[in-house]
Amino acid sequence: MRQLPADTVRLLSSSQVITSVVNVVKELLENSLDAGALRIDIILENYGLERIEIRDNGLGITATDAAVMAVKHYTSKICSHDDLERLETYGFRGEALSSICAVAEVAVTTKTAEDDVGTQYMLDQTGRVVSQKPSHLGQGTTVCALKLFKNLPVRRQYYANIKKCKEEFKKVQDLLMAYAIVKPELRLTLTHNKVVVWQKAKVSDHRMALMATLGPNAVAHLLPVHHQQEQPEILIDGFFPKPGMDCSLASSSNPDKTFIFVNERPVHQKDVLKLVRQHYLAQYPADSARSRYPIMMLNIAVPVSSVDVNLTPDKTQILFHNKPPPLEIGGADQC
Fold first, then answer.
1. What is d(CA 198, CA 53) in angstroms, rounded to the nearest whole number?
2. Which helix (H) or strand (E) holds 275?
3. Ramachandran angles phi, psi of 179, nearest 5°
4. What H or E segment, with its residue span, contains residue 32?
5. Model confidence over 138-173: pLDDT tens digits?
6. The whole model's pTM is what?
7. Backbone φ, ψ for residue 106 (5° rounding)
8. Distance between CA 39 and CA 111 in Å, rounded?
């Protein structure tokens, strides 16, 4: 037996964290949200394989933190595992930016409110700063990742297939729609090959955010829902199809318009999705509804200590300390 070289370990672990274009976009988008950004621009070239650029107007990164911002397991979000019980950010492991550096060429441009001028940092494969120069960009942070998977030829070739490229692009759009809905105050734009293909302006509330992403026709068939209980502590807010609506108007053949959030984090939680579908099928018992998913959004607010988000690298799989209660969306619980 022999110990693997450090660069081999780095590439092996990083290629498990960063598995696709949508992974990169998600990690960088969440970094921007954690920095308090209210405007985020996502710029892709060649479906993200040649360029992924995320620009935000957040707090920026101080010069002291910039030196280690992409070094693995450096983070400003937690100090110990116990802090996960009080987590208020999307990210916390300190490995995303480092992992992106291992599979792409990365530059970070940033400016805080206290800085007279911004700085562009060029990073190497270990996440260390190798050069820097002044930048004219305003407050916030821009992360640019070039030549994704340049050192993973099989994966790069796999994602270079045009069908796969379009599938990944759809996943990016679905991801942005989720954050656009749960963050009404957020302004988002998606640009591909210098053409703006999707955008969402700042709006006042979740209903307006749903209208901006799904369109007024879809929202016209939704009712606001509210459910609250004390033991275990849980608060559910969102929008669900009106009872008795035409199944084709209130649902979709796939779950990409069924938006489920836990503490404003987009998740894929089988127990919650099962409860949602059970409630939906109780209202729409026709056979035609059984293979469909309701067009809806639910945000489930629970104490941070009662949910485990540290299951998978992308943090979309979660565990509840207490099993989610049956969804009581009709009657008195309906706003």
1. 15
2. helix 270-283
3. -70, -30
4. helix 21-34
5. 999 999 999 999 988 888 888 889 999 999 999 999
6. 0.87
7. -120, 135
8. 15
Instruction: Read off φ and ψ for residue 123, nearest 5 degrees.
Output: -115, 150
Give the model confidence (pLDDT) of 101-124 as tens digits: 989 999 999 999 999 999 999 999
- Structure tokens, 54: 């995320």
| Both structure tokens of 179 | 């954050």
Sequence-distant (≥ 6) Cβ neighbours of residue 274 within 8 angstroms? none
Helix or strand run (H / E) with residue 99: helix 96-103
Question: What tokens were used for 297?
Answer: 């959004």
Q: Measure the CA–CA gap between 55 and 29, rounded to whole angstroms.
A: 9
**From residue 148, how far is each of 15, 24, 49, 66 by CA, in Å?**
11, 9, 5, 22
**Exposed / middle / buried, residue 291 (Cβ in 10 Å: 0-12, 13-18, 19+):** exposed
Cα separation, 148 vs 25, in Å, equals: 12
Report in angstroms the alpha-carbon separations of 71 from 54, 68, 92, 117.
Answer: 19, 5, 13, 24
Rounded-to-integer distance, Cα 319 and Cα 329, Å? 22
* Sole residue written with tokens 């045009």: 162
